[in-house]
Amino acid sequence: MPVLRRAGETSGGSGPGVPYHAFLGVIWALTAFATVFLAVRLQSRYRGPRRLFWDDGFAIFAWSLALATAILWQAEASNMYYSLNVAAGLVPPGSASDVQNRLLRYIHSEFAALLLYYSTICTIKLSYLFFFRRLGSNIDRFGRIWWPILLFVLATYFIMLGTYPYSCSTTTSIAYLSTQCNSASFHHYTTIILDLSCVLDVVSDALILIIPFTLLWKVRIRRAKKVAFLGLFSVSVITIVVAIVRTASANDTKVSTGQFDPTFLYLWSAVEACVDTYRAMMSRIRARRAGDGDSGSGQYTTMNGQELKPYSTSQVSDSGKLLDGLKLPK
Fold first, then answer.
1. For residue 145, how many other CB atoms are within 10 A of its CB?
2. How far apart are CA 160 and CA 148, in angstroms?
3. How far is CA 193 from CA 129, 159, 161, in A?
4. Which of 83, 165, 194, 213 has the fewest CB atoms lying closer than 10 Å?
5. Which is nearest to 246 in space by CA: 284, 286, 206, 199?
């Protein structure tokens, strides 16, 4: 993953592009909203089926990763900003040992932040996949769609972990950072990794979008309600846009040496992770409300004319085979 590397004596930039307080303020505001969305989701579960499913567990874990990211930057953002300002000549450096220690703390913290980012995005995708698995557990040959997408999402996660330049994130050598991690070839490599992560992220989201369209094709409901469901699940497009903006922002804010401005990169990483978390949490709540039955008979039919009953909490099986508003038979 692209990361900015600045040795203590290296110049070539104009300092952080995002102000310190704005950086932390946006991250904490996004995390606070995610906490509210999580509370609403849990309340919805309590008032509805009174149980948690696998997709709920993944969503809760994703929220905990987002919270951990906010806590990490609260503790370490000062070291990042100090290192960037010293490298740009905007603040007088302290002792050599202090500059080196704070630079190394920043390098290690951004490594942790990127691992949290990758894990948050992957966990949200798993939450969506297991949510759709509950919806489609009664659909014939549903696994032929679900399993390949699951494997692709997992492969994407491990590809990003496997291509990360660990040597520049775990080193304690300032000389190594100044040479190997500050070279033109390293900056070119990190650019490729950034673009690759964006492509894999967008493609995996697009593949996940195939699933709700496939599910709704099997159910005969009013066209207006079907469009509402499709619009609900199509909010994934928002996350795709944020992922593209994150990559474009990082590429557009490079300094003359080819290094990324980490303040933009990590700010947009936090935005994408939190927006993804909102999408995962609110889609379940809105899906339940959207599927509470029509004002008429409150019944739906499949493409072969079989009748579907409205949602009932007593119908929820241990395998969680119901969408909160629609039962999807074979």
1. 17
2. 18
3. 25, 10, 11
4. 213
5. 199
Query: Which DSSP helix (H) or strand (E) runs through 202?
Result: helix 184-217
Q: What is the distance in angstroms between the CA of the first residue and the CA of the last residue of the chain?
A: 43
Bridge partners, 76 (sequence order): none
Classify residue 324: in a domain, yes or no.
no
* Strand order, beta sheet including 219-220: 219-220, 300-302, 307-308
Residues 199-245 pLDDT 10s:
999 999 999 988 887 777 766 667 766 676 666 666 778 889 999 99
Residue 33 vs residues 7, 59, 61, 117, 282: alpha-carbon distances, Å: 36, 14, 16, 17, 12
pLDDT, tens only, 120-135 = 999 999 998 998 888 7
How far is the C-alpha of 258 from the C-alpha of 185, rounded, in Å?
10
Total domains, the chain: 1
305 lies in some domain = no
Q: Which domain holds residue 48?
A: 20-291
- The verdict on residue 14 lying in a domain is no
Identify the three-state secondary structure at position 139: coil
* Dist CA 244 CA 324 (whole Å): 32
Alpha carbon distances (Å) from 119 to 68, 84, 151, 154, 187: 11, 26, 15, 10, 24
Position 247, amino acid:
T
Is 164 part of any domain?
A: yes
At 30, list the tokens. 């996004």
CA distance 238 to 244: 10
pTM exceeding 0.90:
no
CATH of the domain at 115: 1.20.1070
Pair 114, 1: CB distance under 8 Å? yes
- Which pairing describes strands 307-308 and 219-220: parallel, antiparallel, or unpaired? unpaired
Length of the chain: 330
